[in-house]
Amino acid sequence: MPMVWGGSCCLQLAMMQDVTASTLVMRGISLYVADKHTTADKDLSDMARRASFFLSLTGILLGICFVCPARASVIDLHDKKVLVVMSYHQGSQWQDDQRQGLESVLTGAQTEYFYLDTKRSEAGGAAKAKEALALYQKIQPDAVIAADDFAQALFVVPYLKDKVKTPVVFLGVNDDAAQYGFPASNVTGVIEVKHYKQSITFAQLLVPEIKRIAVLYMDNPTNRKNVEELKRQQATFSAEIVRFRSATTFTDLEKFVRTATDKVDAFLALNLSGLRDEAGTAMEATKAMAKLALLSAKPVIVTDYYDVEAGALCGVVKTGQEQGELAAHMVLDIFSGKAIKDIPVTKNQNGLRYINVTTARRLGVPLKSIAVVGTKLVK
Description:
The chain is an alpha/beta fold. The chain has helices at residues 2-16, 21-36, 44-67, 93-105, 125-139, 149-160, 196-206, 221-233, 250-260, 285-295, 305-310, 320-335, 357-363, 369-372; strands at 81-86, 110-115, 143-147, 168-174, 187-192, 212-218, 240-247, 266-269, 300-304, 314-318, 346-347, 352-356, 376-378.
């Protein structure tokens, strides 16, 4: 459904510029009226010309949003088989968002999903990857999509990369695809970029006193890579990271937050999915974040929208939908006859500002208009 993607692409761009299609139309109207110096004595024909202008402007904007990209309109996907291997589990908000982005583009394709479930059982990932290989051999897909790092390390690299002719498109790979030898003869995809710097700066717009930050994260391979990237970037941040603190249980995380609250101005939380609760059960990211947000007397900054919805104060967030759409359009390019070598590895671009107004109220953080305009407010 190329029109869906085109509209999403256009609207996301507008959101990044704090502009919506309706705002653009109104700005166009204002500029036109100012330019023509309209007065009350203009005749009806002049009014008709203005109306025609407004309609033309609206049509142009809608055309931009919904016509691009046109290439997908000529592709019949009904005889195409796509295997999607997800690193985590069905019901993971991140994976669900990626799936939504994929399906918005690959409508009509015969799409099969397989979940490695590594957030809840990292040790079982290798066995799950062998099951994914058996499924691949059974259905013989026309393309494979592999989401997030575990799918690359456990499935694509050992079984597919440079070993089969089937094209593979990755998404959700953290920061550097070269660690897996990507791009390869049959592999390209989408690198995931998290908006750490922008999130910290945005938080300081709300709370200028934020100068010292502690980073909280669930100890797993993905977050260890995220920490490495944070350390590479931290010299460019407008606040100092004074501590990196990993945890495997929420009790451990809670102890640190209580002792560190007086020593930092905010916490930057990475994905907390997989933290063990008091019963030893792996927690979903949103449940862990909801508990952390209520526990902390200091702002919690994040880079995932569902963490803000769960109770973090704010963040400039990436979206799984965007990465899913980008990866799916690479698959469409392949189905259109484009060679893998001519489809370069790309990155997600869009960052959306989020504020949890309930948390802001609880922390006594005033919502300035400069921070609210162009921002999604959640409760």
